[in-house]
Amino acid sequence: MAALFIKQAKQYAETRPDYPKHLFEFIASKTPSHNLVWDVGTGSGQAAQSLAGIYTNVIATDTSLKQLELAPKLPNIRYEHTPPVMSMAQVEKLTPQGSLDLVTIAQALHWFPTPTFYEQVKWGLKKPHGVIAAWCYTVPRVNNSVDRVMDQLYSIDSKPYWDPARGFVDDEYRSIYFPFEGVDGGVDDTGPFEFATEKVMDLDDFFMYIRSWSAYQTAKDRGVELLRKDVVEEFERAWNVEGGCDHKQKKVVKFPVFLRIGKVGNI
To answer: Which domains does the chain have, with CATH numbers?
Structure first.
């Protein structure tokens, strides 16, 4: 799947939302120390940048060198280009055993071979209180008019072009395999916990966000344009409810965020 995001890395970096400050504050409140984080599937570094403001050091890895080139360069973030599936030997070179306070995965866990990856996470996290936090965001919400057009595009038009793994995002990570303990003492609830993030966009930004979908790229590779003329016109009417065709009219776009979080325990 990494190849799908290489082709639109610039669009991805420019249009994907930043994550809310209170999401990171919530996660950080569950880790006893704040020394070292591994942000896996960092993409263009949206999460890594926020983590770097809380944790002393961040290791941020991704399979796309093109996306890493677009990530913010901060002195306490170490970016590493990795293969799609890392061996244990490669993980051992990345960080010492039991050294990680936190492992984060933003909008990427559904692409991972989870049993293998979780063994690596358990090897790297401090026992018993090292934390893993994985979150996804679902279809953005604007207003009733825009949402109706978006739901048609997402649920009907683009559906044949999404990888089956996208289903984990659609169900808000409820069904994704997540074999970890609850972070709050004896409570075994690992979520999902709901947050939200917002991004101010004009219609051109919104179209660029759609073009950053893996499904958009897959459809394009098969000769299908999801943003057909009639679809664009429907979005224009919905975006400019008072009339006209102003692509530069800005709106607040809300992205629902769903977090799974747990601690490694003594396993």
So the answer is: 2-139+164-198+255-263 (3.40.50.150)
